[in-house]
Amino acid sequence: MTQMPTRRAVAVNYHFVRPARPGRFALRAHETPERFDRQLAQMSKRLRFCRAGELVDPRSDVPESSVLLSFDDGARDVMAWALPLLEKHGATASIFVCALPYLEGRLLEIQKIEYLMKKLGIDGFHDSFYAEYEQRFGSEIEREPLDFAGGYEFYRYDVEAVRRFKLDLNYRIPYAQVTPILDALFAKVFGADAEADAVRETYLSIDDLKQLVDRGFELGVHTHRHRVLPRLDFEAQKREIETGAAWLRDLTGQTRLSVAYPYGFHDENTHRAMRELGLQAGLSMERRAITPRDLLDRWGLPRYDVNDCFDRESNEMKESVFSQITAGTQGPNG
Ligand SMILES: [Zn+2]
């Protein structure tokens, strides 16, 4: 086996970067370009940036310590707002995209939920959701177990009722029930034809994706439909990953593809599917730095959320995160 003894990285994950200017499809939280600019300035002073593919490739020429910037969900914000700032600071990034918006013209449920939550408010959305549930499936709610999460503390900052609702939406009520309810509510609230507009306003276009590749960014797989992989059996997991990978391969000609697992969850079946599909690496949301050992077993690379890496008030980079890869050095060449 090839040796990769000392390489380390901090992976920082972003979703949306945009000015606070709510349109028809509004988000509750995102980074502003000003904050992102300052985050890049701080990181670029001390570290260099890498993409997922080169980080796991022992033959690549990446520094001993680097930052892997990633963007999940393929928001058009990457092109519109993040790209000029990334290029200004000489930073590269890996952008993880789901196939569903492109193959079927549909919004991912995670964004459908976000837009409904913002529009109706948490209480309004809660009440409409369960009313719709009862009408379709009765008053007994069917819930799947959370065994796959291994004791992970979901939504620990939310009050209990909100926490339970978000768990039902994203993890517990079967997809076969949640999907039609969300479709119906979205059409009711935003209009029957709104989904196509929302897709256009939310995600990178095909042309954007090609441009990003031309400009040296890496596109990665965020699966087909953004399902929680360990909720699915092996065959279904493999299909989710394979559909996303095949679509991206056809679009870009890239053959070595990395995967960011939706919500970060993965299990032994995920790893087996990744191996069988010949993929390169898998990124989780386990909050710690990437160590040399992680790079040898590439199916669960840890990754921070941007909120873990910069103070919400001051926007200063957190030493507890970055000193893991910079301690004892004077910067990229130290
Ligand atoms: Zn995602």
Using only C-alpha atoms, the radius of gyration works out to 20 Å
The biggest sheet, with number of strands, parallel, antiparallel or mixed sense and barrel status, is: 6 strands, parallel
Oligomeric state of shown chains:
single chain
Give the topology string: H per helix, E per strand. Answer: EHEHEHEHHHHHHEHEHEHEHH
- Give average pLDDT, whole number: 93
Low-confidence stretches: 329-334
Dominant shape: globular
What would you call the structural class? alpha/beta
Number of strands: 8
Number of helices: 14
Please describe what this structure looks like:
The chain has 14 helices and 8 strands. It has 334 residues and is of the alpha/beta class. The strands form 2 sheets. Strands 1, 2, 3, 4, 5 and 8 form a 6-stranded parallel β-sheet that branches. The protein has a two-stranded parallel ribbon with strand order 6-7. Helix 2 links the parallel strand 2 and strand 3. Helix 5 packs across helix 6. The longest helix is centred in the middle third of the chain and has 29 residues. The chain is globular. The two termini are 28 Å apart. The site of zinc ion has 6 residues, from loops.
